[in-house]
């Protein structure tokens, strides 16, 4: 850390300089380079901007505010950052896990202080957060982006069943490799794919792995002796009609059996059985149905992280960070903004949505810091590249009203190889090289270009 980090502008350093034999030229040099030094402030644990989480939203916004504010701290416990959208392809055995990971130090800004700890508590009334390590960190402005929590333990028999063959989950770095193993050792029989009864991140991912399994097993000859079942707690295959129609047709043509309103509640690895609650059952308790599996892909129930949902001051009734859906500013605390999966924004939780939210939080927080009201409005843009088979993808993009908001001047509901390349190669490149550095706010500008500037 450079000495200049400790030099407040208003202090007279002459007596101290004399004692320490420091030249005034050196002090001027430190002042000039102050903004390039590490951003630790005078008080060791007090910062102008604190960012919780170094994920898709947190890393991008900390890079932006490291350039625009006096001091920034990022609180993030993990030594690695993951681009999770690649885990669909990792689980399917198409990509190596390593391609999705970067050292956290490489994605966080050098001009911010990285607090390698987890936030345990938010104390919004005194503008502090407390970490699990017991540190109190003070902020003037807070950006909350700790993502979503995977609650595997809410399903009886998990996570133990991951220790048995045939069970995997693309949603966790711990179990995505199990999906690959299970897909490859599958030799026909019953394959089950689940979608839980909570909001989740990337609502397309639970079915993407089914299409990739279908393609793989067709190629290696086991598809003809297997039955594939997609058991979803939802009542539709996808929330946007345009894409749902196409997906329904794909499942029909490929003989993929879709069961609606089925929620996984138990896995019995000894007998290779999965128990589903029938959500539209009129009985109390609800009726259940038990299905045998030879392959099981589990998507766990999810919630906001405990540190968020346990603080009633900052969450809505369902436990999500309670932000204004237009401005992303917290509804009660004007110096707090939310980003990404932990929020109650009524849109599909994706990294693509985060990209658009970055621009909104950037502009609105800068306005608040300048003493103005936030005026940038988020339209709920989100996107889900649904890989539907070997090098095939339909590219769903839509807004808060579940209306398609497509970037390209062709029908994105059609399966295309170009959109598969977009998902596998182009978007990850943009994510690591542009978005995380704070220079990508979603494809709005490209969409406009294709429409010659028209809305
Ligand atoms: C299998 C899969 C497929 C997906 N496919 C797509 C896709 O095709 N397209 C797409 O756009 N999106 C996709 N997503 C979703 C996308 O990855 C997330 O929506 C996105 O990463 C959310 O960003 P975030 O910043 O909110 O959270 P994250 O990126 O998850 O980051 C949260 C960060 O907060 C940290 N953290 C957690 N708790 C704390 C705490 N208490 N204190 C401090 N830090 C904490 C975590 O370590 C993490 O680094 C997919 C996700 C998965 C799992």
From TrEMBL:
Annotated signal peptide: none
Gene this chain is encoded by: LOC106810489
Domain FAD/NAD(P)-binding: from-to ranges: 47-161
Gene source species: Priapulus caudatus (Priapulid worm)
Highest taxon of the lineage: Eukaryota
Protein name in the entry: Sulfide:quinone oxidoreductase, mitochondrial-like
InterPro entries for the chain: FAD/NAD-bd_sf (IPR036188), FAD/NAD-binding_dom (IPR023753), Sulphide_quinone_reductase (IPR015904)
SUPFAM superfamilies (UniProt xref): FAD/NAD(P)-binding domain
């Amino acid at each position: 850390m450079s000495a200049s980090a400790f030099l407040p502008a208003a202090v007279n350093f002459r007596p101290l300089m004399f004692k320490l034999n420091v030249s005034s030229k050196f002090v001027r040099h430190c002042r000039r380079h102050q903004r390039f030094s590490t951003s630790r402030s005078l008080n060791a644990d007090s910062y102008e901007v604190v960012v919780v989480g170094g994920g898709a939203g947190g890393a991008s916004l900390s890079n932006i505010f490291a350039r625009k504010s006096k001091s920034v701290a990022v609180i993030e416990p993990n030594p690695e950052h993951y681009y999770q959208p690649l885990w669909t392809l990792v689980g399917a055995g198409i990509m190596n896990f390593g391609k999705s990971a970067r050292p956290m130090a490489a994605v966080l800004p050098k001009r911010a202080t990285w607090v390698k700890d987890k936030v345990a508590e938010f104390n919004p009334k005194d503008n502090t957060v407390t970490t699990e390590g017991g540190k109190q960190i003070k902020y003037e402005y807070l950006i909350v982006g700790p993502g979503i929590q995977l609650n595997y333990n809410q399903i009886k028999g998990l996570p133990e069943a991951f220790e048995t063959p045939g069970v995997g989950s693309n949603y966790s770095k711990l179990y995505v490799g199990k999906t690959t193993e299970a897909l490859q050792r599958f030799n026909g029989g019953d394959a089950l794919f689940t979608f839980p009864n909570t909001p989740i991140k990337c609502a397309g991912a639970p079915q993407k792995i089914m299409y990739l399994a279908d393609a793989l097993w067709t190629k290696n000859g086991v598809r003809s002796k297997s039955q594939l079942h997609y058991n979803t707690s939802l009542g539709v295959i996808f929330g946007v009609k345009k894409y749902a129609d196409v997906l329904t047709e794909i499942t029909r043509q490929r003989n993929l059996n879709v069961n609606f309103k089925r929620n996984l509640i138990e896995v019995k690895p000894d007998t290779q059985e999965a128990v589903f609650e029938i959500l539209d059952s009129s009985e109390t308790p609800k009726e259940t149905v038990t299905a045998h599996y030879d392959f099981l892909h589990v998507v766990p129930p999810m919630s906001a992280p405990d540190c968020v949902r346990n603080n009633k001051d900052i969450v809505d009734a369902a436990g999500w960070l309670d932000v204004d859906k237009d401005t992303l500013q917290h509804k009660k605390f004007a110096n707090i903004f939310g980003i990404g999966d932990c929020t109650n924004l009524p849109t599909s939780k994706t990294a693509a949505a985060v990209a658009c939210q970055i621009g909104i939080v950037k502009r609105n927080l800068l306005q608040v810091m300048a003493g103005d009201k936030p005026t940038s409005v988020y339209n709920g843009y989100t996107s889900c590249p649904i890989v539907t088979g070997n090098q095939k993808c339909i590219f769903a993009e839509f807004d808060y009203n579940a209306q398609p908001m497509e970037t390209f001047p062709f029908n994105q509901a059609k399966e295309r190889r170009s959109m598969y390349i977009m998902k596998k190669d182009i978007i990850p490149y943009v994510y690591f090289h542009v978005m995380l550095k704070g220079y990508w706010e979603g494809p709005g500008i490209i969409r406009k270009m294709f429409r010659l500037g028209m809305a």
